[in-house]
Amino acid sequence: MWLQEWWISRPFAVGRSYYRIPLAYSHLPIGIAFPMSDATTSREAPPIRPDSAFLSDVEEHCDEPVSSCYHCRKCTNGCPLAFAMDVMPNQVMRMIQLGLVEEALQSKTIWICASCQTCTTRCPNSIDIAHVMDCLRQLNRERGIQPGEEDVVKFHDAFLKSVRRNGRVFEFGMVGAYKLKTMNFFGDTKIAMEMLKRGKLKFLPSRIRGTKEVRKMFDK
Ligand code: SF4
Ligand code: SF4
Hints:
Elements: H1 2-8, E1 11-14, E2 17-20, E3 34-35, H2 38-41, H3 54-62, H4 74-78, H5 89-98, H6 101-105, H7 109-112, H8 118-122, H9 129-142, H10 150-166, H11 171-182, H12 189-197, H13 211-219
Antiparallel strand pairs: 1-2, 2-3
Helix pairs in contact: 10-11, 10-13
The structure holds iron/sulfur cluster (SF4) (2 copies).
């Protein structure tokens, strides 16, 4: 909540310095001001270049009425992962409406979203926000834009490769591929040991019968 207020707060200048007052505190007689970093205060910051076709691109791509979002924030208030996001789900909808392509497609939020669909069931305008997030991930990859969460993208790649090859996920191989991509070999050792103990990590893959059909689905 506080971060959201921060995000939409407006900067003001005193002399050559810039400050922000979060809207949540702006009613107080004595303001609480925070100095802004050089990156956000620079007068030479590159101008934002909205793309007026972005909204229709996204609506066409995912067949969801993003333009009907009126920012009630029910999606954001119900999102279990909002605490880890850099912009809130309703703000992503607003970025799409405003044509802020890079801001939406470079956000961490689209990769942190777990597709749990809580937001989708809460939206009064029947927007499948989880599906919109999925479309934004696809657009990010299609347009070759630097993702906001590189490790999550590497995990997605390793997961999908494993499913393409075996028709189902082969956890041991997938984790190996992911570790090679991130070079973080000891990050999850404890969890891996626990999974091994419980027989959840098999050393050899087991393939399903219809692997050819699964590959065809990936090639489409
Ligand atoms: S719940 Fe629906 S209408 Fe409300 S902010 Fe989220 S997307 Fe927009
Ligand atoms: S689908 Fe994504 S954005 Fe929606 S509530 Fe779940 S984690 Fe949050």
